[in-house]
Write a structure and sequence with these properties.
With 241 residues, the protein is mainly α. The protein has one domain. It contains 10 helices and no strands. The termini are close together.
Length: 241
């Protein structure tokens, strides 16, 4: 086996490792969500309420501002690149398009997240010594909340582009037959459910409960998709030896 091919095999291993970390993050998200109730209506509404939560319960406050999702999104980039690598000789054009969409969406999502900024503002808010300082910080906090609010266009695009990319990459899996049809169809169906959920909660918030009913099976299928593709990435790495 030549050096270039061995380098590609190392990409599979890195993708498998980051996929494993993503799985851990997804499972942690599910557990935390079940404990906290995962009800968006119960989240702090104002900047001051967010500051209080970030000050009293910093980990919960950061979680409620999607920091765990940001970490997961970043970790998924090497995994998606590894899937692209596995299909570079089969359906390179569509695999590359899926990779570009995923990276673009991830950049938008990470750039639009305000968790760390709000955490810093919360610290400054409680360190402020005058009402004028606190008012300015509160105003900045409200602006940050509006920027990263669930249902905002920037957040919607940041979530939707990677989801569309996952669907496209799963279609590539069907054509390429590297990962198997079960893995591919889990990805197509599960991510399609999540795409519908994102559209509903963004543009039709009144039917959030119905949207959640769609998201639950979609989330489970995506979890299965992740497990199967993680196993396959490690197998692709081992096959180099």
């Amino acid at each position: 086996m030549d050096i270039v091919e061995k380098q590609w095999k190392s990409i599979y291993f890195i993708g498998g490792v980051t996929a494993t970390l993503c799985l851990c993050a997804i499972i942690a998200d599910m557990i935390i969500g079940s404990i906290t109730g995962a009800d968006l209506t119960l989240l702090p509404k104002t900047a001051i309420d967010r500051f209080v939560q970030l000050n009293d319960k910093p980990l919960l406050g950061l979680y409620n501002m999607d920091l765990l999702n940001v970490i997961t999104q970043i970790l998924m980039i090497p995994t998606i690149f590894a899937i692209y690598a596995a299909h570079r000789n089969v359906d390179k054009a569509n695999a590359l398009l899926a990779l570009i969409l995923f990276v673009t969406g991830s950049i938008l999502f990470v750039a639009g997240n305000t968790a760390l900024t709000m955490f810093d503002l919360s610290r400054k808010y409680f360190e402020a010594t005058t009402d004028a300082q606190r008012y300015l910080i509160e105003s900045a906090g409200e602006a940050m909340l509006a920027k990263g609010a669930h249902g905002s266009l920037s957040v919607f695009i940041g979530f939707v582009l990677p989801t569309i990319a996952n669907i496209l990459m799963s279609v590539v899996m069907i054509k390429g037959r590297v990962f198997g049809s079960v893995t591919a169809y889990f990805g197509v169906i599960g991510n399609s459910f999540l795409l519908v959920y994102l559209v509903l909660v963004t543009f039709f918030p009144a039917i959030e409960k119905f949207a959640l009913a769609i998201a639950m099976p979609g989330g489970l299928m995506v979890l299965g998709w992740m497990v199967l593709l993680t196993i396959k990435l490690f197998k692709l790495r081992i096959s180099a030896n």
